[in-house]
């Protein structure tokens, strides 16, 4: 099995090194990741400047690794096309430093790298550790192997990925796996206004997630599952069509006169 490992925290982050190490136990692993942190870049791709591929050595890991001066989605595209010559069986992105829960998936470079894999028609996983402080990615690495093996066995429909969030607690405190829908994650966001050395104002976004445990339509979500120390797994599709509302909106435009 040929595995493409990517992330959005950059090739030297601790999470991707754990993921590369874990994946190398189940397949031939190639790391293609941004040369610097690209968190919250969503699904951006680079069109207006050249991309460079730089081989790097990751200490103690028996994997090929390449840094790219682009976004996570760029890395998957160029990793698939050029570095791995279109022979890829699995794309896995992470292990992200911090959660990718609920609406986070729309901003997340980690999740977008997995979606790029899905666009290429490949089984793809995004995996995140629910902590910005923990340095211990070992449990999430084990979860990654487990999820990858299940995905390769069962498969998913075209265009779908698995989004996985692992609580940052000791292994014995993890209660199990819950397959749940995405929740809605709200942030208390603020722009802090400051003044630069030349007297001009600038603004810097700060935000803190409000981890309310409110259920969505009464259902458990990825947010509530990780809060209860479960690994949360959500199958996610990049087709954002609201199928249940197509007929309704069609009704708005039935009479040409309404234009
Ligand atoms: Mn990140």
What is the first-to-last residue Cα distance? Answer: 54 Å
Outline: globular
Order of strands side by side in the largest beta sheet?
Answer: 3-4-2-1-5-6-7-11-8
Unique ligands: manganese (II) ion
CATH superfamily: Survival protein SurE-like phosphatase/nucleotidase
Unreliable segments (pLDDT under 50, ≥5 consecutive)? Answer: none
Count of alpha and pi helical runs: 7
> What's the number of extended β-strand segments?
11
* Secondary-structure class: alpha/beta
Query: Approximately how much beta-strand content do the residues carry?
Result: 25-35%
Helix content: 25-40%
Write down the secondary-structure element order.
EHEEEHEHHEHEEEEHEH
Question: What is the CATH topology classification name?
Answer: Stationary-phase Survival Protein Sure Homolog, Chain: A
Taking the sheet with the most strands, its summary is:
9 strands, mixed
Integer count of domains:
1
CATH hierarchy, class: Alpha Beta
User: Mind telling me which CATH architecture this is?
Assistant: 3-Layer(aba) Sandwich
Global mean pLDDT: 94
Rg, rounded, reads 20 Å
């Amino acid at each position: 099995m040929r595995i493409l490992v990517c992330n959005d925290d950059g090739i030297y982050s601790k999470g991707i090194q754990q993921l590369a190490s874990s994946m190398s136990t189940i397949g031939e692993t190639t790391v293609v990741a941004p040369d610097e942190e690209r968190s919250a870049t969503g699904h951006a791709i680079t069109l207006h400047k050249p991309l460079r591929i730089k081989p790097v050595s990751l200490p103690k890991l028996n994997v090929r690794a390449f840094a790219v001066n682009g976004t996570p989605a760029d890395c998957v595209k160029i990793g698939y096309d050029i570095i791995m010559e279109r022979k890829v069986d699995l794309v896995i992105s992470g292990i992200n430093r911090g959660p990718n829960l609920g609406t986070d998936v729309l901003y997340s470079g980690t999740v977008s790298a997995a979606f790029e894999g899905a666009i290429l028609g490949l089984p793809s996983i995004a995996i995140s550790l629910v902590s910005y402080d923990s340095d211990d990615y070992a449990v999430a690495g084990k979860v990654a192997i487990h999820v990858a093996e299940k995905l390769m066995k069962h498969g998913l429909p075209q265009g779908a990925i698995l989004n996985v969030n692992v609580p940052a607690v000791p292994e014995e405190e993890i209660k199990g796996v819950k397959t749940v829908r995405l929740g809605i994650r709200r942030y208390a966001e603020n722009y802090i206004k400051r003044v630069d050395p030349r007297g001009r104002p600038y603004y810097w976004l700060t935000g803190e997630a409000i981890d309310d445990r409110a259920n969505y339509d009464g259902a458990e979500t990825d947010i509530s599952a990780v809060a209860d120390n479960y690994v949360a797994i959500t199958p996610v599709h990049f087709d954002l069509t609201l199928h249940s509302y197509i007929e309704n909106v069609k009704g708005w435009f039935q009479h040409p006169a309404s234009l």
